[in-house]
Structure formats: structure tokens, C-alpha cells
Design a protein that fits this description.
Helix content: 40-55%
Order of helices and strands: HEHEHEHHEEHHEHEHEEEHHHEHEHHE
Main location: periplasm
Protein name: Sulfate transport system substrate-binding protein
Distance between the termini: 82 Å
CATH superfamily of the largest domain: Periplasmic binding protein-like II
GO molecular function: molecular carrier activity
Number of helices: 15
InterPro entries: TAT_signal, Thiosulph/SO4-bd
Radius of gyration: 26 Å
Number of domains: 2
Low-confidence stretches: 1-31, 350-356
Shape: globular
Subcellular location: Periplasm
Structural class: alpha/beta
CATH class of the largest domain: Alpha Beta
Number of strands: 13
Mean pLDDT: 90
């Protein structure tokens, strides 16, 4: 009898211990509870596929958004980032990269995804300000003291001036710089033939064509190539800040208006059941906190009040849209950057090196 009671007690002890261990392991496997005692939802992960120079912007945006979403929805969220040349990034999404949102450099890159049925029709009107939480432009970065006295687009074709700009075949930065140069001619009384001659001279002064904006920054700021760098306004500020006084920004009198749209990737969010998170994420970029982050990183916020509060950071130069040069981005892509377009006709591979 005594032995039987001992065995029974041992069984109860082992059973209770097993329950305790099971509970402990369950806690380790994520069955946490919210402060109100309800079961916490599992963490959700989304991917933001963006263009080259937005790494720092979206990193800080993610750090602000993730805790805010968790507090409001009692669900942890992790936003991952992917960056590269805007065109190749769009093709990666078309080829199957599971982007929940895209924040690419050009309307045409986002719309190329729409044409494949991956983004729904009417995407541009689904968020405020035509899905533009910010705009930007192309400016010049020069060496300390601006020794070649570069002030405007015509200075880029002078003898002895080496220009760093990424390839317009692969980079949004590259396309916008090309269009900025083209517009500087045709919007100031020149003909298209004049513009063609101008960009021909310009690209003869380009010693290396990187595939993306950040690669061009490395070539100019770190490798010391070139006398002037044609780059995004935000990238220029980052470049100059990191150079410790060895570089400076030059604003030409006019430049291209850059409009980097954002969009939900409908087929992906519907399959992954992440639409709510993705929508809240992009809407956060329009919030006062999101707009302040945008201004802090030298992108021009869409909120007029935030833009005005940071007016000193954004010189009021003349910004012309792509539609002042062609009917739309589809025409720009075909006319200037498609196979057999203007760039292919004026580009001389013997004069430049394309760098991956």
C-alpha cells in the first residue's frame, strides 16, 4: 500500500511537471498575451521594395511605424527593406519578389508592375496627393570651393569637366538627370536637336556609369571620381554631411520635378493577408510624424505646412515636370530610354565604363 501511494504520488508529480514545462515552452513559442489578457496576434512581416538612396529614410520611418502599429493594433509588425536601381527593382517584383509595398523612383516603374496585373488599376488615386508622400529633384554636388565654378547645366559640357551620374537605362536618378539636362535646353528656347547635341556632349564627360544612385555616390564621394555629381537632393545632403566639408551642393536655376510614387502591391498583400498593415504603413508616411521624418531626410514633404516649416532646407528653384517635355512617362521611357531611343543613339560605350 505504501509503495502504491508512492508510485501514485510520483505519477502526479511527473504529470504536473510536464504541464509546467509545456506551458513554459508554449510561452517561448509566442503564445504571449496582451496587457488586457487577450491572446496576442502573431507578428506580421511586410517588405518595402524601394530605390537606391531611400535606405536611411525608410529605416527611420520603420522604426517609428512598428511600435505605433503594435500599440494601436496589439500586433507586432516587422518591415523589411530592399533597395537597388528603380528599374531593376520593378522587374524583380514582376518576376516574383514578394513586395507588399513599392516606393520606387518613377511613376513608370510602378506602372510597369500594374501592367502585369500585380498592382490594381487606379493605384495612383488610392493614397493622398496622387500617392506622393514627397517629391524631390536633381541637384549638383561639387568639390570643396567649387573650383570649376559649376553653377548651371551648360557648365557640365565644358572641357575638363568630369560628370558622375548613374545610367538612365537602370536608374531613376539617371533618367531624371538626363531629363533635367534635356529640359534645360528645350525649356529655354532650344530645339530638340540642340538638346540632343547637349546631352551627347554631357555623356562624353561621364567617365563611369553606375547602375544606381548609391553606386554613383560611392564613385564620386569615396573613389574621388569626377568634378560634379548629378544626384537626388536628399542624396546630395547625405553625401555632403558625410564628406566633412570636402563637398558642397549647387542648385541650378531649374531642374526636373521628381515624383516617387508609392503603392500597395495588391496581388501580394491579398495572398499574404497583409493589406491592413501595408495600407497603414503607407498612410503613416502622410502623418505629421511621417512628414517630419521625410523633411528630416531632405525629401520635400507633401504637407504644405511641414514643407513651409522646413523652407530653409529646400531652395525655391524652378521645377519642371516630365509632362513639360513629353506627354507622359510612357512616352519618356520609349523616346529617351527604350531600345533605340535617344540615349542609345548618343551613348558611346567607348567613352565610359558601366560599373555594376
Amino acid at each position: 500500500m505504501f509503495k502504491s501511494n508512492m508510485l501514485l504520488g510520483r505519477r502526479h508529480f511527473l504529470f504536473a511537471s510536464g504541464l509546467a514545462l509545456s506551458a513554459a515552452f508554449a510561452g517561448c513559442n509566442g503564445s504571449a498575451t496582451n496587457p488586457d489578457g487577450t491572446a496576442a496576434k502573431p507578428e506580421v512581416e511586410i517588405l518595402n521594395v524601394s530605390y537606391d538612396p531611400t535606405r536611411e529614410l525608410w529605416k527611420e520611418m520603420n522604426q517609428a511605424f512598428e511600435p505605433k502599429f503594435k500599440e494601436e493594433h496589439q500586433q507586432a509588425v516587422k518591415v523589411k527593406q530592399s533597395h537597388g536601381g528603380s528599374g531593376p527593382q520593378a522587374r524583380a517584383v514582376i518576376d516574383g519578389l514578394d513586395a507588399d509595398v513599392v516606393t520606387l523612383a518613377l511613376w513608370s516603374d510602378t506602372d510597369a508592375i500594374r501592367k502585369k496585373g500585380i498592382i490594381a488599376e487606379g493605384w495612383e488615386e488610392k493614397l493622398p496627393n496622387r500617392s506622393l508622400p514627397y517629391t524631390s529633384t536633381i541637384v549638383f554636388v561639387v568639390r570643396e570651393g567649387n573650383p570649376l565654378n559649376i553653377k548651371d547645366w551648360p557648365d557640365l559640357v565644358k572641357d575638363g569637366v568630369a560628370v558622375i551620374t548613374p545610367s538612365p537605362k537602370t536608374s531613376g536618378n539617371g533618367k531624371l538627370a538626363f531629363l533635367g539636362a534635356w529640359g534645360s535646353v528645350v525649356l529655354n528656347g532650344g530645339t530638340e536637336d540642340d538638346a540632343r547635341k547637349f546631352v551627347t556632349k554631357l555623356y562624353r564627360n561621364v567617365p563611369v556609369l553606375d547602375t544606381g544612385a548609391r553606386g554613383a555616390t560611392t564613385s564620386f564621394a569615396q573613389r574621388g571620381l569626377g568634378n560634379v555629381h548629378l544626384t537626388w537632393e536628399n542624396e546630395a545632403h547625405l553625401e555632403v554631411a558625410e564628406a566633412g566639408g570636402k563637398l558642397q551642393i549647387v542648385y541650378p536655376p531649374s531642374s526636373i520635378l521628381a515624383e516617387p510614387h508609392v503603392a500597395i502591391v495588391d496581388s501580394v498583400v491579398d495572398r499574404k493577408k497583409t493589406r491592413e498593415v501595408a495600407e497603414e504603413y503607407l498612410k503613416f508616411a502622410y502623418s505629421p510624424a511621417g512628414q517630419e521624418i521625410i523633411a528630416k531626410h531632405f525629401y520635400r514633404p507633401s504637407d504644405p505646412a511641414v514643407l513651409e516649416a522646413h523652407r530653409a532646407d529646400f531652395p525655391d528653384i524652378k521645377l519642371f515636370p516630365v509632362t513639360s517635355l513629353v506627354a507622359n512617362w510612357d512616352e519618356a521611357q520609349g523616346k529617351f530610354f527604350g531600345d533605340g531611343g535617344v540615349f542609345d543613339l548618343i551613348y558611346q560605350p567607348a567613352n565610359v565604363t558601366t560599373k555594376e
